[in-house]
Amino acid sequence: MSEFQLHPQLAADTLPVASLPLCDVLLMNDANYPWLILVPRVADASELLDLNEGDRTRLWREIDIASQALREQFAPDKLNIAALGNMVSQLHVHVVARFKGDAAWPKPVWGAQPARPYPAEESVERLSRLRDALERFVSAG
Amino acid sequence: MSEFQLHPQLAADTLPVASLPLCDVLLMNDANYPWLILVPRVADASELLDLNEGDRTRLWREIDIASQALREQFAPDKLNIAALGNMVSQLHVHVVARFKGDAAWPKPVWGAQPARPYPAEESVERLSRLRDALERFVSAG
Fold first, then answer.
1. Chunked in runs of 10, what are the mean pLDDT values of chain A (141 residues)?
2. Residue B15 in contact with partner chain A when CB distance is under 8 A
3. Do A84 and B83 lie within an 8 Å CB cutoff?
């Protein structure tokens, strides 16, 4: 079994937020939506079913934590949670805060709009808020 | 709290497959993809976070069961799993068997192609295969 390495496409499209017990949490570099991506640090995993039961439980727990952080920080109208992986097969889960009237609403976000990279200052502020919120929900768990 | 009732849009778009401990399992009436929808029988739930912890655990387990059934019956190239709910807010989870070269590949299925309803005989055969497979994976769990 090879060692876990973040897929270069995911690394290129995102900013690193935090490291949870199982997953790296990344912020999609797209200011259209508050959009987190969770990547379990497990080599060669592509489907949820590729994780052992303990890791699957940890993943669901971390999806809950990411959802709680987005909900607290952005009060979205809807959360969208998805494991697709048709383009990048490395297992990763999208957790996206959606708003009525956002750039893709009510469609799914994938491929709907060109990414709008964060201005540097805005990304610093957003990453810091998200780190604080994730840490609090991890501690509360 | 009101009583659970399947959303009329979900009822209209699907064929009933099975009733698991938490969820109704529905087959999207779209022969473009083997596409299951899991609907927890919990009134007024819209987000995963609206479920209590026991029900959330049951839901993840039933997503695994649906995934195993699709994988066994169709040997897809990829599973797509998603809780979106931008159009129909009643909590429901898509579990879709995807193939390189299917009608939407590699894009997500939502809105990609008009639904292609199953011919009656094909739906009978597909529902029966899916029921058998779900039952086996429930028993094995």
1. 92 98 98 98 98 97 98 98 97 98 97 95 96 95 75
2. no
3. no
| A68 near B CB under 8 A | yes
Q: Is the pTM of this model over 0.95?
A: yes
Amino acid identity for residue B95 in this structure: V
Tokens of A28: 């999609």
Calculate the CA dihedral of residues B86, B62, A74, A65 and round it to 10 degrees: -170
Q: Judge whether A90 and A39 are in contact, CB under 8 Å.
A: yes
Cβ A24 vs Cβ A39: under 8 Å: yes
DSSP E strands in B1-141: the ranges are 14-19, 23-28, 35-40, 78-83, 93-98
Q: Where are the beta strands (DSSP E) in B3-121?
A: 14-19, 23-28, 35-40, 78-83, 93-98
CATH topology assigned to domain B8-140: HIT family, subunit A (3.30.428)
In this prediction, the answer to ipTM > 0.90 reads yes
DSSP run (H or E) holding A76: none
The verdict on a CB contact (< 8 Å) between A47 and B79 is: yes
Percent helix, strand, coil in chain B (nearest 5)? 35, 20, 40
Give tens-digit pLDDT for B116-128. 999 999 999 999 9
In this predicted structure, the answer to whether residue B1 has a pLDDT above a threshold of 90 is no
Side chain identity, residue B94: H
Going by DSSP bridges, is the β-strand pair B93-98/A78-83 parallel, antiparallel, or unpaired? unpaired
| Residue A62 near residue A21, CB atoms below 8 Å | yes
Residue % of chain B over a pLDDT of 70: 99
- Please report how the helices A53-74 and B53-74 are oriented relative to each other, as an axis angle in degrees rounded to 10: 120
